[in-house]
Amino acid sequence: MTRFILVVGLAVGLLGAPSVVRAHDAYDDSESNPIRLAAYAISPVGWLLEWTVMRPIHFVVSNPQLEPIFGHAPHETPFGAYSPYEPDVP
Q1: DSSP code for 28
Q2: Total-model pTM
């Protein structure tokens, strides 16, 4: 009898579990492209390299006292010669 209750409980648990699973967004066939699958593996490596190697290097070379040595120039403003719109805050 205990075995029967265990089997029924397991069956109910396994059959009920898929009903609560939901995706974060809609799936389409572009996610199954082999290049996209490779990008899923490579993207974390790129993120890690950016935060552990490239950003610290930029921090050092963008130091105002070291800019002439490394030839770093500050980035231009994305707004060109225009200043961004700043609303009047009362």
Answers
A1: -
A2: 0.51
